[in-house]
């Protein structure tokens, strides 16, 4: 019985670049990400590891032939012999550029063909994503791989929230399928269209809302009219409240939740209060002093 092959994660270039030391060295080659730290340790002290150390955290695809997946070859200017292309000098697991008495045949495939060194797949595109926790109103913007499923996005988000599984993830009024990517969940990438019309690519960043599973407010909202649109209240030109938190449009009435300062036994604490905004009238259900 063969064991199931482990699925490699997608990795962004900004994640590769932080592994840029001899003791922690990653490189990318033709869409694959390799951890060559064991290779550097094996050849420690030899000149052949210097090119890898010099290119730590970078892409080495220009050393390789995209059609064959192997090292590129060129005609040596002195010997006239077809030799491996090594712009930074010879590196481990390649043939020597000139005749050498220390040359030995490789014992197995070269390191860029060995799965033991591969740690992931280089993403084809990085996408920004805003995540808003509707329980705490904490908002972050993170960069994710376009191929990431939302389970992988949850892992990335876990540095801000240790228990992302306790929340229902929603985009507009739809629950997100955690086994699918952003595109598969209908969260399209419009940055190319923005650039086509001369608009900044960050003009709009998709936003996902997190509702705590035990939060009664989430249940009440589901029973009410479906959400038709989400937007940042700070950008709204009609209401002008400028609270900078999300709201929903349900006809002429806008509703938002705003943090208020309350006093209890000489202690101040934050508590949500509801503010309803009509196009002609603003009515506060609870008084809130200026923060």
Automatic annotation (TrEMBL):
Q: Which GO terms describe its cellular component?
A: axoneme
Domain annotation Cytochrome b5 heme-binding: ranges: 8-77
One Pfam assignment? Cyt-b5
Which keywords are on file for this protein?
Cell projection, Cytoplasm, Cytoskeleton, Heme, Iron, Metal-binding
Organism ancestry: Eukaryota, Metazoa, Ecdysozoa, Arthropoda, Hexapoda
Could you cite one Gene Ontology molecular function of this protein? metal ion binding
Compartment(s) where it occurs, according to its Swiss-Prot or TrEMBL record: Cytoplasm, Cytoskeleton, Cilium axoneme
InterPro entries, A to Z: Cyt_B5-like_heme/steroid-bd, Cyt_B5-like_heme/steroid_sf, Cytochrome_b5_domain
Record's keyword annotation contains Cell inner membrane: no
Q: State the function annotated in the UniProt record.
A: Radial spoke stalk protein that binds heme under oxidizing conditions. Required for the coordinated beating of multiple cilia maybe by functioning in a redox signaling pathway.
Per the record, the similarity remark reads: Belongs to the cytochrome b5 family.
* Highest rank taxon of the organism: Eukaryota
Q: What is this protein called?
A: Cytochrome b5 domain-containing protein 1
**PANTHER family hit by this protein:** CYTOCHROME B5 DOMAIN-CONTAINING PROTEIN 1
* Predominant place of localization: cytoplasm
């Amino acid at each position: 019985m063969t064991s199931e092959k482990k699925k490699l994660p997608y990795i962004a270039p900004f994640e590769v670049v932080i592994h840029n030391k001899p003791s922690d060295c990653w490189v990318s080659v033709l869409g694959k990400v390799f951890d060559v730290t064991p290779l550097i340790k094996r050849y420690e002290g030899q000149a052949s590891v210097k090119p890898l150390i010099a290119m730590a955290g970078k892409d080495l695809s220009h050393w390789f032939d995209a059609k064959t997946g192997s090292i590129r070859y060129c005609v040596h200017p002195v010997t006239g012999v077809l030799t491996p292309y090594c712009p930074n000098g010879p590196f481990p697991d390649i043939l020597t550029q000139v005749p050498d008495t220390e040359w030995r045949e490789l014992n197995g495939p070269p390191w860029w063909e060995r799965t033991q060194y591969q740690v992931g797949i280089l993403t084809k595109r990085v996408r920004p994503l805003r995540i808003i926790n509707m329980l705490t109103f904490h908002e972050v913007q993170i960069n994710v791989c376009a191929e990431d499923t939302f389970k992988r996005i949850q892992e990335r988000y876990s540095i801000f929230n240790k228990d992302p599984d306790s929340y229902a993830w929603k985009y507009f009024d739809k629950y997100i399928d955690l086994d699918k990517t952003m595109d598969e969940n209908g969260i399209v990438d419009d940055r190319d269209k923005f650039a086509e019309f001369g608009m900044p690519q960050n003009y709009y960043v998709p936003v996902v809302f997190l509702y705590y599973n035990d939060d009664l407010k989430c249940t009440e909202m589901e029973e009410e009219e479906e959400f038709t649109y989400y937007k940042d209240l700070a950008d709204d030109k009609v209401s002008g409240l400028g609270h900078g938190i999300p709201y929903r449009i349900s006809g002429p009435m806008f509703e938002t939740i705003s943090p208020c300062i309350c006093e209890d036994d000489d202690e101040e604490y934050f508590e949500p209060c509801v503010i309803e905004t009509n196009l002609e009238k603003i009515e506060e259900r609870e008084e809130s002093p200026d923060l």
